[in-house]
Amino acid sequence: MVLPWRRHGNTSTSTAQRVVQRYLLYYSSILKDYISIHCQVTGDELVLTTAQNQQLLQLGFNKDDENDEDKVREFINNLKFDLFLITEHYDEGLVLLKRRLCLTLQQILYLRLRKKAHKTTAKDTKYEQILNHRKEQFREWSKAEYILYEVANQTFWTEFNKEVGIREEVEHFIKVLEKISDFHHLGRKRSSLVIQKSQWNEEFVITRRMTSFMTVYDNEIRAFFK
Known about the structure:
- By secondary structure, this protein is mainly alpha-helical.
- The protein has 8 helices and 6 strands, in the order E-H-E-E-H-H-E-H-H-H-H-E-E-H.
- The strands form 3 sheets. It has a two-stranded parallel sheet with strand order 1-4.
- The longest helix is centred in the first third of the chain and has 26 residues, at 13-38.
């Protein structure tokens, strides 16, 4: 199970604004259908019916009980999942999944976006204050789902910390991803990149064709959900 919560602590104002704009544009084509299914329109009012605590409801929880914390916790405790993954700990989750499923490092590779240097401004600080306020509002509005998140987060780190040497493997995995990202975005004169053997992987080669497939795959996923 993957829960799409993402931390925004280091997000710049301009980057965050672009993310929101892309999100709105990306989902504008399905917004009307979503409203017709999940909302009720009474006069000029739009009443959300299943957007609140949505992931919990998708798992089968009764909406009538979403304000009953005891029933929420009982339902969550009875969920049968071997592993929770959370996107704000994406790399840690992939390495843990690799170990559980006996995958190779090559099988969990993905193409990282390059980060741009940004100097924090007063506007960024103000935006963070607004963002934190909105997050607290959403936490209160979708309280049952935040309970799910807290349980999932705790469960994830409990399982993660059971693994010997996994933090070192995550650090290695991130370094490999950064090398692949630099190769794809900057290494135009190079046709291949050799990833050296380590205690977590055999030596292997990354080509431009392979990184292109990573990009195409990402675009296909986006197109699928449009």
